[in-house]
Amino acid sequence: xxxxxxxxxxxxxxxxxxxxxxxxxxxxxxxxxxxxxxxxxxxxxxxxxxxxxxxxxxxxxxxxxxxxxxxxxxxxxxxxxxxxxxxxxxxxxxxxxxxxxxxxxxxxxxxxxxxxxxxxxxxxxxxxxxxxxxxxxxxxxxxxxxxxxxxxxxxxxxxxxxxxxxxxxxxxxxxxxxxxxxxxxxxxxxxxxxxxxxxxxxxxxxxxxxxxxxxxxxx
Length: 219
Prior knowledge:
This protein is mainly α and 219 residues long.
């Protein structure tokens, strides 16, 4: 009786991403050329282009993977569906930080310098930002439906951008955090999310405006 060996199919896309991360960690910079990088991976250059057209694409894929793994972990928890909007954002950020920890050395090598973390958003992060803003808009809509978030004309259309800026702030804070188990980052997440939802929620000013409208309409 002969046992046929199953040929394990190589996931070249994952191999390229991991190879790129390892190269950056070992050399402190990205490979000098696609040709050299593909050769190190024992691939033909044209085969590399079947998956990515540049190193920029690999860096973007790292960020996309961070988002997808974070959201996948969250949505696999049955209790996540029952969370309030505030709890969903907290859950996302705490879970995301756990994913970031797995890649901390690479992220430090790529983004620790001031010029990379301030000013213009790095091009490769933009796909991650778009995916996060889609997620943010879903929880904002839920929050409006439950009145956890106030619907303010013009301002509420920018809530997703405000939450994105908060995510980028948390990332930069975490890069610099040297506290045990990143406990300061955990505190920053909790305080910033609570502040954001307090600002987006129904405030005393909203209540006053509603009351003033009522008095005006019923004078």
